[in-house]
Amino acid sequence: MKLGQLVHGDDYSPFEAMSAIELMQPKMDVGLHQTPDVKTVMAEIGELSDDDAKYIADGMIAMVYLYFNGNTTLQTVWSCLLCHDLGSVHHEGLKYFLNLALRCSWLARDIMLESEVVADEDAPLALLGAALDQKKLPAVADCLGGRIAAFEALEKILESVQTSKGEGCTMATVSEVLDALQMAGRDAVLAEDEDRRKQLDRLFDA
């Protein structure tokens, strides 16, 4: 690269450029920060314990709410390395939770698109390469007591809206989905060991 040149993806726009300038974060410039390999990082971190899984779930909840508050996928839910390759997650409870978090983010975006009242500057409608579509996510075992059912119900409602066969989703339905996400991660706690927390924080460095 030469001075004044910029490496960017096909969907990179002035909006993302301004976000990178405002954040002043090197990770927003792909020329300075390369996404780490998931399997390599996981090999260095080692097997995830239940406490590790809870710590990562806690961080992912924060990313989901940051996404809801108008930040981009790259700054929030897609910053979690494990979401780039859910197949590399061997902790079934964590894999289940991350699957729900991505589906919840996709549904939130779907709701905004269907409402037709949201502008690009108000909400992060561009996926920017994030694979949030629930149809592309790997199947997971419903190991935490039927939480996926709430998501599937809302997905069916949105599909009926798109085919003009339904009235749309209500706030009650959306609340049920958010409750399901919170219940799935309600046991999230900090890992006790500080060095271990620093290791796990690398998983949010995509």
UniProtKB/TrEMBL annotation:
One of the record's GO cellular component terms: NatC complex
Keyword Transferase belongs to the record: yes
Residue ranges of domain NAA35-like N-terminal in the record: 4-91
UniProt keyword Transferase, yes or no: yes
Gene Ontology molecular function, alphabetical: transferase activity
Swiss-Prot/TrEMBL keywords: Transferase
PANTHER family assigned: GLUCOSE REPRESSIBLE PROTEIN MAK10, N-ALPHA-ACETYLTRANSFERASE 35, NATC AUXILIARY SUBUNIT
Name this protein carries in UniProt: N-alpha-acetyltransferase 35 NatC auxiliary subunit
Species in which this protein is naturally found: Perkinsus olseni
